[in-house]
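ESCALATION

Customer reports they have been waiting on this structure for their group meeting. Please prioritize. Original submission:
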Amino acid sequence: MKGPALTESGIRPAEVAEAARIIAGAGLAEAFGHVSARAGECFLITSTTPMAAAGPADIHLLDADGNAAEGAADAPFEAALHAAVYAARPDVNAICRTHSPAAVRAGARGEVPPLLHGLGGLAGGVRLSGRTDLVTDAEAGREVAADLAEADCLLIRGNGSIATGSSLPQAVVRARYLEERCLVGEGPDSGSGLDQGELDARSRWFEKESARAWAWMRWRYAGDS
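Update from on-call: job pushed to the front of the queue and completed.
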C-alpha cells in the first residue's frame, strides 16, 4: 500500500520522500538505493521509482516483515534488510541504503577506512559485511543486521552501504559523512586515524555539526515535493 498522509508514529511519507531526494541529490545513490523510516510496528520505504523525483505517492507502508500490500510491484527487493535491522535495533528509526562511490570502493576492498578527520566522525561507528548478494529474504536480512551489530553504518562488500539513525536527518547525515570518511581514508598512506582521546574531544561537537549539515543538505538538495 502507499503510505498514509500521517502514520500513527507521526512520520510522514513526505519526509521519507524528501530524505530520498536529498540522498540522490548529494550523489549518494543513483538508480539503486532506498530510504525508510520506522512507523510504529511497520515502516515507510521508497519505491523503485527514481529517488531524485520522490514524492509522497512514491512511498510504501510495509509491515514489520517487509511485506507490501498485494499489487505493490515497485517495493524494493531489499525490504527484508530494513525489516531485519528494525527488528534487531529498537534504537534505529531510519535507514538510508546507498551506493556512494568511495563507500562502494571501501566495501569492495573489505576495509573500514580509518577516521582521519573530524567530520568523518559524523558517520558514527562503521562496520563491514562480507555479503555479495542482494538482501532479499529474512535470513539474509538477519545476517546483515548481525554484521551491523551496534554500529551506525555498514559497508557491504558487494553492494554499497547502509546508514542508520534515530531519525531521518541523522541517517541522511551519516550516509553523507560515511562517504566523506571513505574518500578521505583512501590510499595506502592514509594514516592510522584519530586516537580515542582525539575522538572523544572532537565528538562533543558532533550533535551541533550534524544539525548544521542536515540544514545545509535540505537547502541544497531537497527541492520541491
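Sent to customer with the following note: The mean pLDDT is 93.
Escalation resolved.
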